[in-house]
Amino acid sequence: APRAAPVGARRARRASAPRTAATFPRVVRAVASSDDKAPAKVVVVGGSGFVGSRVCDKLRAAGVADVVSVSKSGGNGGVAVDLSSDACVSALTDAMKGADCVVSCVGVFKPGDDDAMREGNGTYNVRVVDAAAAAKVDRFVYVSVASIVPDALGGAESAPVMAGYFAGKKMTEEAIANAFEDSKVCLVKPSFIFGGDAFSVNPPRVTQQYGDVLVKILGSGFVKSVAERSPGPIALTLAEPVAVDDVAGAVCAGVFGRNPRMSCDGTDEIKACAAAM
């Protein structure tokens, strides 16, 4: 699917050219902390999903008065918007008016269907970014993917079964970079997310109880030291998974401007970011 046309003001906000590397760079630029005042309005796109619904709950608990969930179904008491056509940008822009921050938890995982994954992770999210820029939203937080994942599978552009997935994520990160200043962005980049009380095959997911056991094993100093010295695929297998509540917590920290860096890449950085809440 073609990439949605960018908002005109987008390129003016950031003059540098978008990144063109085949893999996701580790962005570690420091981000200044904000004050403790809660944002008045936050829009969470994908707000009825596994991660997004928890983000909405945490934002409300943190004192955000107006948390607007946007999804195709309109679930979680939210606004129904279908991201599959350019026409959605107008509806998204209306929903985002007056928002201090927009969060995108939108993602599609369909191994073997690169076009669907490129569109669902890229084109859909670019429309969200365009709408946020048009609505003059101040901050943007995006749930992407840890750098270790495409690196371990041979690179974002050459992974045999996930090329469309990584291409879509990369497309979105470039759109965000063109639309928002670094200090106004938080990229939350998990590898394997666990949580809840049900197993899932697509996307792959284990329960909170099972994930806690994996964390005790894979989060040990010994296993981490082995992973650091291992080839990519083995390192990915040994990578510590991250709890969905920590992902949601890191997103909330990004909304409040408490993220210590622009990119929270991998479990350790996500947990550190979540601790700021």
User: Helix count?
Assistant: 11
Q: Could you state the order of secondary-structure elements as H and E?
A: HEHEEHEHEHHEEHHHEHEH
Oligomer: single chain
Distance from first to last alpha carbon: 38 Å
Extract low-pLDDT stretches.
1-5, 7-23
Shape: globular
Structural class by sheet pairing and helices: alpha/beta
**Rounded average pLDDT:** 84
What is the radius of gyration? Answer: 18 Å
Strand percent estimate = 5-15%
List how many beta strands DSSP finds: 9
What helical percentage do the residues reach?
A: 40-55%
The main sheet orders its strands as 3-2-1-4-5-6-9
Largest sheet: 7 strands, parallel
Detailed description of the structure:
This protein is α/β, with parallel strands linked by helices. It has helices at 8-13, 52-61, 88-96, 114-134, 148-152, 163-179, 208-218, 221-228, 232-238, 244-255, 267-274, and strands at residues 41-45, 66-71, 79-80, 101-104, 139-143, 185-189, 193-194, 242-243, 263-265. The termini are far apart. α2 (52-61) links the parallel β1 and β2. It is globular. A seven-stranded parallel sheet has the order 3-2-1-4-5-6-9, sandwiched between helices. A two-stranded parallel ribbon has the order 7-8.
Q: What key attributes describe this structure?
A:
277 residues; alpha/beta; seven-stranded parallel β-sheet; 41% helix
Short description:
With 277 residues, this protein is of the alpha/beta class. It is built from 11 helices and 9 strands.
